[in-house]
């Protein structure tokens, strides 16, 4: 019986680099894009033997901005996928898209390729904020792209927002969030701004915390997000993600549930049979070695059982449903309450975790300090 597999395809190109972004991405030339897509096709096809043991249920094109690729380039990538991997009957296939790069022609091609889920990086519903963030699109362009996507037949559309940005208050956030939610999207992801070293935002704001919402304001922004989106029929199912029933991201759930996924492309990460692997982040190396993935891996780690248990907890607890004692016992043949006796006792007693029947999950207070809570489940 074939095992289930997710595919992640990394497209590192953008129209321009945003001030807050530390992802592996840059503004590539046409020549770079052509060379990269040819290498990506070669890498995909190199997995022909591996693919025989798997059936793909999700594909996710991320970046960067995959929607900058030309129609023929997207078609070439999907032709390579289709010739190499067996896809299940109704896979979830997502492409990340910047509203400033969407056209009716691209949408039609994406649909023909089997793409059935669109993740739009809107980031803000306010034009002044979009300019401050360094986005290339306006709110009006997002609305136009959304309308075009609906006309093209997309009925599963997600949008990303960034919260706790410079100058934001709980009140201005409420207005932005409601403006986006009014568009009747199936899924919304909300990511709190993190100042990453090496970005323009880090240089500008790291030494000036007074320009950012304080802890109390950020707390209210986060807590209000779930309340507001629930009124629009979107339920929180993970720390940063909200969806209408049945529209949760099947691909992203693979990460939190430690399912097998294969990363293809520059710097892409994989987790297959408890082995974590990262492709090289060096473009020259990638182009030279794409036909033999084993030679271009920067990091390969087999996860021993203690590490698997850690991941079960700190990835699983990101979901609002949390983790299951029965599933832990079925996976590891041990009792969760004994393996993590000290951490569980501490976090349940201080109210950071709650339990209901078989499941253990973060409380509202626990979500607000989730990194500290999740760190409790790391073995010394």
Automatic annotation (TrEMBL):
InterPro entries: Aldolase_TIM (IPR013785), Coproporphyrinogen-III_oxidase (IPR034505), Elp3/MiaA/NifB-like_rSAM (IPR006638), HemN_C (IPR010723), HemW-like (IPR004559), rSAM (IPR007197), rSAM_sf (IPR058240)
GO CC annotations on file: cytoplasm
Matching PROSITE patterns: RADICAL_SAM
Alphabetized UniProt keyword annotations: 4Fe-4S, Chaperone, Cytoplasm, Heme, Iron, Iron-sulfur, Metal-binding, S-adenosyl-L-methionine
Domain of life: Bacteria
GO terms classed as biological process: porphyrin-containing compound biosynthetic process
A Pfam match: HemN_C
Gene3D superfamilies tied to this protein: Aldolase class I
Main location: cytoplasm
Family to which the UniProt record says this protein belongs: Belongs to the anaerobic coproporphyrinogen-III oxidase family. HemW subfamily.
Function field: Probably acts as a heme chaperone, transferring heme to an unknown acceptor. Binds one molecule of heme per monomer, possibly covalently. Binds 1 [4Fe-4S] cluster. The cluster is coordinated with 3 cysteines and an exchangeable S-adenosyl-L-methionine.
Protein name according to UniProt: Heme chaperone HemW
Species of provenance: Candidatus Blautia merdavium
